[in-house]
């Protein structure tokens, strides 16, 4: 069997593209951050609309981790999330977590706001101060109903 150089080159390019896609997908889903260079934190939110496993966790606009698990707590009816953060990032124990949006058409992410405590959350600790996502549709409906009430 004789292979043409063009066939070998195209095959190599397809293989490189496939490996690149797998690496990209691993980073976006948070699979790469589940190793020993990260630690878990837990947070309970009223609503996690627009957030899924793999969503970025940011501190001061910089990605420091990702969401690795989401579950509905049947006792509190809140969304419990597990955040995986880089070990190099230490979070004060009075910090807050909020679901934020990149803009009207952008995706959501979890934004951490560090507190002022000198004590830090241990691996497996819980962020108590949380704020869930805000629905753009509900805000628009509130605005429309508030401005349309008086037609004199």
TrEMBL record:
Pfam families noted in UniProt: MlaD (PF02470)
Mce/MlaD domain ranges (all copies): 38-115
InterPro entries: ABC_MlaD (IPR030970), Mce/MlaD (IPR003399), MlaD_Phospholipid_Transporter (IPR052336)
GO biological process: phospholipid transport
NCBIfam families in UniProt: OM_asym_MlaD
Domain of life the protein comes from: Bacteria
Protein name per its UniProtKB record: Phospholipid/cholesterol/gamma-HCH transport system substrate-binding protein
């Amino acid at each position: 069997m004789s292979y043409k150089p063009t066939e070998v080159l195209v095959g190599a390019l397809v293989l490189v593209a496939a490996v690149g896609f797998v690496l990209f997908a691993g980073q976006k889903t948070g699979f790469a951050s589940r190793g020993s260079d990260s630690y878990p934190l837990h947070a309970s939110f009223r609503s996690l609309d627009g957030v899924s496993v793999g969503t970025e966790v940011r501190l001061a606009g910089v990605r420091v981790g990702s969401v690795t698990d989401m579950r509905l707590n049947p006792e509190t009816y809140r969304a419990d999330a597990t955040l995986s953060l880089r070990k190099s990032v230490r979070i004060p124990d009075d910090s807050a977590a909020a679901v934020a949006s990149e803009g009207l058409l952008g995706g959501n992410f979890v934004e951490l706001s560090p507190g002022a405590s000198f004590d830090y959350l241990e691996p497996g600790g819980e962020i108590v101060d949380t704020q869930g996502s805000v629905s753009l549709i509900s805000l628009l409906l509130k605005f429309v109903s508030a401005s349309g009430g008086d037609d004199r």
